[in-house]
Amino acid sequence: MDEEFSLDDPTQLLDSASDFAHYPGSLNDAAVKDFLDRFPLPPSCSALQTNSDVPGLENTLVACLERVFKTKYGASLIPQYMTFAQVGLKADSQIVRCLSCKTVSSFLKNFDDKSIYAIKLIIDCDIYPLLLDCLLNGDEQVATAAIDAIKNLAQFPEAMGIIFPSNINEATHLGNVASRCSSLGRVRVLSLIVKLFSISSSIASVIYNSNLLSLLEAEIKNSNDTLVTLSALELLYETVMQLTEVQHGAEFLARTTLQLLHSIISNSSMESILRSRALMISGRLLSKENIYMFVDEPSAKSLISAIDVRLGLLDSQDTDERESALEALGGIGSSIQGAVLLLTSFPPAARHIVHAAFDRQGGGKQLAALHALGNIVGENRPEDGVILNGDAEESLRRLVYEVASESSKLTPSGLLLSVLQQAAEFRLAGYRVITGLVARVWCLMEICSKPEIINIVTDPTAETTKIAMEARYNCCKAIHRSFMSSKLVSDPALSGIAGKLQEAVQRGPYLVRKHTEATPVVMTAERF
Question: Which GO BP terms sit in this record (predicted)?
Answer without folding.
Answer: proteasome assembly
